[in-house]
Amino acid sequence: MSKCLTRSSSRCGSISLSNANKDLRDFMFRGLMFESEATGFQSAGIQVGADMGQAEERLLSEALSPFGVVRRNQALEMARLYAVLHCFENEVRSLIRETLIEKEGADWLSKLPIKVRQFAESRQKVAFADSWLEGEKTDMLGFVDFGHLSQIIVDKWQCFEDIMPSQHWLKQRMDELEKVRNFIAHNRGLLPSEFSRVYMYIADWNRVVGL
């Protein structure tokens, strides 16, 4: 009798395990099919799943909710300008990096203007010593001030003269944008005409140089 019970239990266990494996395979198959179909829907412009943009807007709205409407509107307008300047500044850094690597080789950093290089090295050293901030620290060009970027391009003009119309064109735009950057870094607001000028300069840069 016990042998029969043992064989019966063994068969039941095998059937149960087999069913579990089948359920797992079916679940994984359905997941793969959904992923494949979702990719097709997204390629066709059909939204599948949560809208991350709406989720981010909701989180931002919640974070700003303690403040008044006027203050929130000012903050959102300044945030948009900051995002544009952030992208622009880092695109200029990328342009310098890629151009100098192509024109001067892998040791291009050692050929930067000495005062600019020493300034960046000093700030990078301080950043590495600061254990509280663990963001990006390995890119030395990231420690160059905004104002130094045009200085590097002018110093290496032979590498950039085919990209930009003139040094005057470069300095006019970079000097104006540096003033704006430093102004809003201290959370000061701008006039609508000043917003327009910033967007105009960056659009002009994109038209002539590219981003």
Explain what the structure shows.
- 74% of the residues lie in helices and 0% in strands.
- With 211 residues, it is an all-alpha fold.
SSE layout:
Layout: H1 2-43, H2 52-64, H3 69-104, H4 114-129, H5 146-155, H6 157-160, H7 167-185, H8 192-208
Helix pairs in contact: 3-5, 5-7, 7-8
Task: Give a quick rundown of the structure.
This protein is an all-alpha fold and 211 residues long. Helix content is 74%, strand content 0%. It has helices at 2-43, 52-64, 69-104, 114-129, 146-155, 157-160, 167-185, 192-208.
Average pLDDT over all residues: 81
What is the domain total for the residues? 2
Unreliable stretches (pLDDT < 50, length at least 5) are: none
Query: What series of H and E elements makes up the topology?
Result: HHHHHHHH
Rg, alpha carbons = 29 Å
Largest sheet: none
Q: Quote the beta fraction.
A: under 5%
> How many helical stretches?
8
Query: Got a strand count?
Result: 0
Distance between the termini: 82 Å
What would you call the structural class?
mainly alpha
Give structural attributes.
2 domains, 211 residues, mainly alpha, 8 helices, extended
